[in-house]
Write a structure and sequence with these properties.
elongated; Pentapeptide-BTB/POZ_domain; about 210 residues; mainly beta; two-stranded parallel ribbon; Qnr family pentapeptide repeat protein; 5peptide_repeat
Length: about 210
């Protein structure tokens, strides 16, 4: 059995750089903790009884990794998450407002780094989050809140976008190939530089009453 903690406030350096498999962290408070390079594999952070997730607010999650974890309802607000990996996780309702995936080089030059793939992001909150040129493929985005978010240049391929407000976020230069595009409307969404396959393009044009021949 993995480590099992309940209702604990996690000391700042307790898990820095550690590898933790099959752990259970019910109602644990990781706020402000330094989890630089920490790996969580198959860990549970969501408490079903209280319907509360792990608290990672203001944590340092630089190069931290979550694989096959339950991050439902997790609070990532104002965390430093440059280089974070979230792969094959449940993250429904997770709150990423104010999370930084950005490395500022100067006041005007910066880059983002994040790998969020094959995860359930339904109803997660990405309002005003900047996740540009990142790996964000094969995620489920149903009902995610993305008002003011920028995904420009990111790989969103293979995603499921039912119940997704395309007008609310910047998706220019994104790869949308093989994605289920939900209610995407060519008339109201800026698709400059977007990549999609011919089947998707034909579907979008058909919605405008344009028949594709050949």
């Amino acid at each position: 059995m993995g480590l099992a903690l309940q209702g604990e406030k996690i000391a700042r350096n307790r898990f820095t750089g550690e590898k933790i498999e099959n752990g259970s962290f019910m109602l644990c408070d990781f706020s402000g903790a330094d989890l630089t390079g920490t790996e969580f594999i198959g860990c549970q952070f969501y408490d079903r009884d209280s319907r509360q997730g792990g608290n990672f607010s203001r944590a340092i999650l630089k190069d931290a990794s979550f694989k096959s974890c339950d991050l439902s309802m997790a609070d990532f607000r104002h965390a430093n998450a440059l280089g974070i990996e979230i792969r094959e996780c449940r993250a429904q309702g997770a709150d990423f407002r104010g999370t930084s995936f950005m490395n500022m080089i100067t006041s005007r030059t910066w880059f983002c780094s994040a790998y969020i793939t094959k995860s359930n992001l339904s109803y997660a909150n990405f309002a005003k989050v900047v996740l540009e040129k990142c790996e964000l493929w094969e995620n489920r985005w149903h009902g995610a809140q993305v008002l003011g978010a920028s995904f420009s240049g990111s790989d969103l391929s293979g995603g499921e976008f039912s119940g997704f407000d395309w007008r609310a976020a910047d998706v220019t230069q994104c790869d949308l190939s093989n994605a289920e595009l939900g209610e995407l409307d060519l008339r109201t969404t800026d698709l400059q530089g977007v990549k999609m396959d011919s089947h998707q393009a034909a579907q979008l044009l058909e919605r405008l009453g344009i028949a594709i021949i050949g």
